[in-house]
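Reply to dn_fold:

You asked what the input looked like. This is it:
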Amino acid sequence: MHPFISADFQNGKLDGWSVTSDTIRLEIKDPEDEPWFYFVIQGVDQQTWHFDLPGLDLKQAPVSVSYDRFDWIPADSRHANGFSHRFDQDAAVVSLTLPYTNNMLYEFSLWARRSPHADLIPLGGRHLQDPLCLHITDFGEWEDKAVVWVVARESPIQAAGSWVAEGLIRFLVSPHPVAKQLRQTYRFCVVPLLDIAGVAQGESKRTLSWKGSLQGTAMGHIEQMIKEQVQSGARMALTVTVTARVCGAGQSIATSHIGEDEIARWFAHATVTTDIGADSFSAWASQLYPKSKCLTLETAWFGPESALKSQYDLLQEGRQLVHLVGEILGERIRETAASEDPENMESYLPCRPRRERKADASLL
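and this is what came back:
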């Protein structure tokens, strides 16, 4: 009996499929420009299947399998134009990247809003239909604090950027001394997933643009928030754009405000450039507010020596990004960064699969 495959769900992506013997041919209309798939497969318990994807080189692609949409494992083998995997259960989800969906963002936002240091701001007023901005600081007399903006996932396919942004948020609301130090001085406005509509529709190409009029868009709401912050006397301290590669190894950081030695302290293997990216949020913000500093982080699913990263590795990159932000802002955080983590730190920044961990502790 042949397995059944479907991508008919939010964020699902597959243009067609067919079965011949033990091989499944997957179809993507434009594998070069939209190299992504995300589907459910059923009827495969204890079976090995080979998947062919003409036109898509998967030798350095993060093909992943999950049985609960939470813990993901890499496919058993990848090769040019295909991959193979033996399934341990009857039904599984298969994705080219570890997906970060709108529903995952919503569930994470429910966790984050329990923190006394976080406030949720829908960029359009509709909590489940518009991108979320998480406003993080030590509230009280916070209106005059300098502002740091972080925008991730300008393109739907950049799921790794959302994982990094979640790690950044988890660390910023944590009891770690570095997080406390930064919350006391700055306000952080973090958008973990900007192109929420593109992700919902399973798109891959970049559809958003910071050029021209932004009225009526999520970017327009960001623009209005920034204008109100500046008009109220708050200083724009830093803007950060988090992007991600889909295939291949590497990591790059673009900034003109910090030396390579400081960057290497937190991102030892990153390539440092001064090319912010003309279409990015940081480039747009730097034109409007030239006195503010800017930074672009491009992450990737493969690290040094072509080691495949997990979502937990990307959460840790978010933590590293917080420390780099502190360096750029001129905060003396090196000694603080060496402080011991509180005992409950793992509930904020998990580093192992859920099945290996106890239940998360309450934020409160």
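The chain has two domains: 4-95, 102-356.
Hope that clears it up.
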